[in-house]
Design a protein that fits this description.
single chain, 452 residues, alpha/beta, FAD/NAD(P)-binding domain, Enolase-like, domain 1, 3 domains, seven-stranded mixed β-sheet, five-stranded antiparallel β-sheet, 23% strand
Length: 452
C-alpha cells in the first residue's frame, strides 16, 4: 500500500456498513481510519433494528399473558413500566456500542471522534484535523425527516420514540411503511390508543398486495385506527395535548405525533458537493455497480446511496467494496432474492418477487395460498391468522417468491431465502418432507393453485 497518505482507507460513518468495511479492509493489511460524530453502531444498533425489536418483544407479552389462561395459567393482570423497558434497552445499546468499539480497535482501525467533511478527493476534515486517504468511503446512512407543515416542531420521529420519558396514551403515526406499522404494533401492544394516517389506500407500498390487505385487517382487529388517503396538514398544541388536522378536515387528538414518512440520505453538509461527488434528487450518493462515485477515489455504501436500505445489504455492499478495492476481485453487490421482514403485529417475512412484479415480468404465473389459524390459537380462540403465499413460474417451475404474515414469519422466510437463492422449483418444495406440526410445513404442502 502507498505511504503518501495517512490511510489507505478512511471511512465516514461508523454504522453497520462502515464498521464492517473498515474492519475487513484492515484485515487485508490496509491502514484504516474511521470517524463518527455520534456513537459507534449507527442506525441499526442504536436507533433502528435492535432497540425497535426489543420494544416489539415487550409489546408481545401483553397477548402472551392473556393467552396463557387458555393453557391453564391462572388469570393475572400485570402492569407495564415503560421506564424500566427504556432503561434496560439503553443498557443493551451501551453494551453493543462497546462491542463495536472493541471490534474496530482489535482490527487495528483508528477511530476519530467528530463529523467528517470531505475537502477533496483524498482529504477528510474531522474537527481541526485534515486526514488524507488513498480511498474515502462514505457510509453515513440515512435520517428520518418531518415534512414542513405548520406545527411540525411538535412532532417526533422514530429516533425520539425510542427514548420517550413515558408511554403516551394516544399516538398518531403518520406513514404506512415498515417503521410506521412496527411502531403502531409496539404502542398498541403496550396499551396506547393508536391512529395511523396514510396517504395511500393500503399499508406497506411495494409489498405483495395480499400481505398489505392482511396486515391492515389484523391491525384493525387489534384496535389500530387507520385513516387512508389522508395527510396531516397542521399540528396545534393545546391544553389537552396535540391536535392534528388532516387535509380532509378531520381533527385527531394525541399526546404524541410520530412521523414515519421516509428517511433521507445523510449526505448533506459533509462536503460531497464541494468535492464534485454527484448526488441524486433526494441527496442519494450516485454510485456505479461497484459502489464507486464519479470521483474515482470516493466510494459509498449503505442507506446514503438509497439502493436497498437494509442493514444486511449495507454489510454485503461493504464486503463487496473490500473485495473490489483491497482484494483484487471486482465484486458488485447482488440484490436478487434478498429476504426481508417487517416486525409488525403480526410480523411479515418475504423473499423474491411479489405477485404484481412476477406478472409484470413473466406474464402468467401460478399462485398458491394458505390461510389458517395457528395451532397455538386453537385453544386461545384469538382472532389471529397466518397467511402464506407462493409464486411460481409455470414455464420453468421455479419458485419466484414466498410471502408470509404471521408468527415466526421472519425465521421461516430466512430459510426459504436459501432455497430461492439456489433456484428451487415447486417440485423440489413438494418433495420436501414437512415438520409437523409447524406453520412452516405449509410451504411444502401447498398443492392447489389459485384460479386465474
Amino acid at each position: 500500500m502507498t505511504t503518501s497518505y495517512d490511510y489507505d482507507l478512511f471511512v465516514i460513518g461508523a454504522g453497520s456498513g462502515g464498521v464492517r468495511a473498515s474492519r475487513m479492509a484492515a484485515q487485508t493489511g490496509a491502514r484504516v481510519g474511521i470517524c463518527e460524530d455520534s456513537r459507534i453502531g449507527g442506525t441499526c444498533v442504536l436507533r433502528g433494528c435492535i432497540p425497535k425489536k426489543l420494544l416489539v418483544y415487550a409489546a408481545h407479552y401483553h397477548h402472551d399473558f392473556q393467552d396463557a389462561v387458555a393453557y391453564g395459567w391462572q388469570p393475572h393482570h400485570p402492569t407495564h413500566d415503560w421506564g424500566t423497558l427504556i432503561a434496560n434497552k439503553d443498557e443493551e445499546l451501551d453494551r453493543l456500542n462497546g462491542i463495536y468499539i472493541r471490534l474496530l480497535k482489535n482490527a487495528g482501525v483508528e477511530i476519530h471522534e467528530g463529523r467528517g467533511r470531505v475537502i477533496d478527493a483524498h482529504t477528510v476534515q474531522v474537527g481541526q484535523q485534515a486526514i488524507t486517504a488513498k480511498n474515502i468511503l462514505v457510509a453515513t446512512g440515512g435520517w428520518p425527516f418531518i415534512p414542513d407543515i405548520p406545527g411540525a416542531e411538535h412532532a417526533i420521529t422514530s429516533n425520539e420514540a425510542l427514548d420517550l420519558p413515558e408511554r403516551p396514551h394516544r399516538v398518531i403515526i403518520v406513514g404506512g411503511g415498515y417503521i410506521a406499522v412496527e411502531f403502531a404494533g409496539i404502542f398498541a401492544g403496550l396499551g396506547s390508543q393508536v391512529t395511523m394516517v396514510i396517504r395511500g389506500e393500503e399499508l406497506l407500498r411495494g409489498f405483495d398486495n395480499d400481505l398489505r390487505v392482511e396486515l391492515a385487517q389484523a391491525m384493525t382487529r387489534a384496535g389500530v385506527e387507520i385513516h387512508t388517503r389522508s395527510n396531516i396538514a397542521r399540528i396545534d398544541k393545546n391544553a389537552a395535548g396535540l391536535n392534528a388536522r388532516t387535509d380532509l378536515g378531520a381533527d385527531i387528538s394525541a399526546d404524541v405525533i410520530m412521523f414515519a414518512t421516509g428517511r433521507a440520505p445523510n449526505s448533506r453538509g459533509i462536503g460531497l458537493d464541494d468535492a464534485g461527488v454527484r448526488l441524486g434528487r433526494n441527496g442519494e450518493v450516485m454510485v456505479d455497480e461497484y459502489s464507486r462515485t464519479n470521483v474515482p477515489s470516493i466510494w459509498a455504501i449503505g442507506d446514503v446511496t438509497d439502493r436497498m436500505n437494509l442493514t444486511p445489504v449495507a454489510l454485503h455492499e461493504g464486503m463487496c467494496f473490500v473485495k473490489t478495492v483491497f482484494g483484487g476481485q471486482p465484486t458488485a453487490p447482488i440484490y436478487d432474492n434478498i429476504a426481508t421482514a417487517v416486525f409488525s403485529t403480526p410480523p411479515i417475512g418475504t423473499v423474491g418477487l411479489t405477485e404484481e412484479e412476477a406478472r409484470a415480468k413473466f406474464g402468467k404465473v401460478d399462485i398458491y395460498k394458505s390461510d389458517f389459524r395457528p395451532l397455538k390459537h386453537t385453544l386461545t380462540k384469538r382472532d389471529h391468522f397466518t397467511f402464506m403465499k407462493m409464486i411460481v413460474d409455470p414455464a420453468t417451475d421455479k419458485v419466484l417468491g414466498c410471502h408470509m404474515i404471521g408468527d415466526d414469519s421472519a425465521e421461516i422466510i430466512q430459510g426459504l431465502a436459501v432455497a430461492l437463492k439456489c433456484g428451487a422449483t415447486k417440485a423440489q418444495f413438494d418433495a420436501t418432507i414437512g415438520i409437523h406440526p409447524t406453520a412452516a410445513e405449509e410451504f411444502v404442502t401447498m398443492r392447489t393453485k389459485e384460479p386465474d
